[in-house]
Specification:
The protein folds into 2 domains: about 200 residues, Rossmann fold (3-Layer(aba) Sandwich); about 90 residues, UDP-galactose 4-epimerase, domain 1 (Alpha-Beta Complex), CATH 3.90.25.10. Helices cover about 40% and strands about 15% of the residues. The chain contains 10 helices and 13 strands. Helix 4 links the parallel strand 4 and strand 5. The protein is globular, with a radius of gyration of 19 Å. Bound molecules: ligand F7E.
């Protein structure tokens, strides 16, 4: 029998890659997303999934709309990827972030509990929950210390995911994903901000790049690899929590070096530090230990950062050349 999956946040980077993965596996894929007047479907187009997914309009903060989406899609699997996901904005919109990123997840859990208790549930948790790190390499047993309203909201959603597993016996899993990037990343995130700028600088359309903290270090992987881990979690006999990471950490400065040198430029000639991009509290370094995912899920990251940079840059060079806006 054909399986049905419901994805919240389907118009985001991970939503697009996951939709593609599930379509390729033969699922009926439903997407839940707010109605917007701007073009939110460009990522689904880029993965050639736009015509094959069924979209339901609604908002994570509106329980009745989430409930209707669950009733309509009759899902075997629910992936909660929707959120206010930009850490930087979460200080300007802490309450909205709490509603969408924290309470929103519980709305989905409630809808599953009420209308599809047999469905398997995935929560998009995050390495931002580790924040001020309490261990050199973070794994499923490392204590959390979030450093942003976003991280705090995600931590609430994470524990509610665990709680619904323990309280109601629901099949819920929490994927603690470290940063994951791709050509479908939004322009506000640092990796894509860099690759887009490098493409513009190379093609003579821009002459500098203003960034914040160049010394922050992240464990950056490829989003296309990471959605496969989400699916694998829901194929396990029981729900669980898994760190998904590459096990390598690199600074923003080094990322710039790699991106500029890919087109034969020196980042020091173009990158300007602008305190406007500093955060009120920073997560200095993240480094994940994905040993459990490898052991239990048979998953490991397969894309090296150098290849990810090249992939993003080649896509951005082509986009800038043809005048695309995303
Ligand atoms: O920042 C520094 C910034 O915004 C990375 C989200 O997907 O991953 C993402 O969160 C680092 C930070 O991602 C700029 O201060 C320097 O230290 O690309 P980002 P993020 O905050 O790590 C986690 C796992 C999530 O869950 C989130 O949803 O780069 N940085 N200069 C900058 N960052 C930005 N955005 N812009 C700059 O100009």
């Amino acid at each position: 029998m054909t399986k049905s999956a419901l994805i919240t946040g389907i118009s985001g980077q991970d939503g697009a890659y996951l939709a593609r993965l599930l379509l390729d596996k033969g699922y009926d894929v439903w997407g839940f997303q707010p109605r917007r007047s701007t073009d939110t479907l460009w990522r689904l187009r880029e993965v050639q999934a736009e015509d094959d997914v069924r979209l339901i309009n609604g908002d994570l903060t509106d329980l009745s709309s989430v409930l209707r989406a669950v009733e309509k899609s009759r899902p075997d699997e629910v992936y909660n990827l929707g959120a206010q996901s930009f850490v930087g904005s979460s200080w300007d919109q802490p309450l909205l972030t709490g509603q969408a990123t924290g309470i929103g997840a519980v709305n989905v859990l409630e809808a599953v509990r009420l209308a599809a208790p047999e469905a398997r549930f995935y929560q998009a948790s995050t390495s931002e929950m580790f924040g001020l790190i309490q261990a050199e390499r973070q794994d499923e047993n490392t204590p959390f210390y979030p450093r942003s309203p976003y991280g705090v909201a995600k931590l609430y959603a994470h524990w509610m995911t665990v709680n619904y597993r323990e309280s109601f016996g629901l099949h819920t899993s929490s994927g603690i994903l470290f940063n994951h990037e791709s050509p479908l990343r939004g322009l506000e995130f640092v990796t894509r901000k860099v690759t887009d700028a490098v493409a513009r600088i190379k093609l003579g359309l821009q002459n500098e790049l203003r960034l914040g903290n160049l010394d922050a270090q992240r464990d950056w992987g490829f989003a296309g690899d990471y959605v496969d881990a989400m699916w694998r979690m829901l194929q396990q006999p029981q729900g669980g929590d898994y760190v998904i990471a590459t096990g390598r950490t690199v600074s923003v400065r080094r990322f710039c070096e790699l991106a500029f040198s890919h087109v034969g430029l020196n980042y020091e000639d173009y990158v300007k530090v602008d305190p406007a991009f500093y955060r009120p509290a920073e997560v200095d370094i993240l480094l994940g230990n994905p040993a459990k995912a490898q052991r239990v899920l048979g998953w490991q990251a397969t894309t090296a950062l150098e290849d990810l940079v090249a992939m993003m840059l080649e896509t951005d060079l082509a986009r800038v050349q043809r005048g695309a806006r995303n």
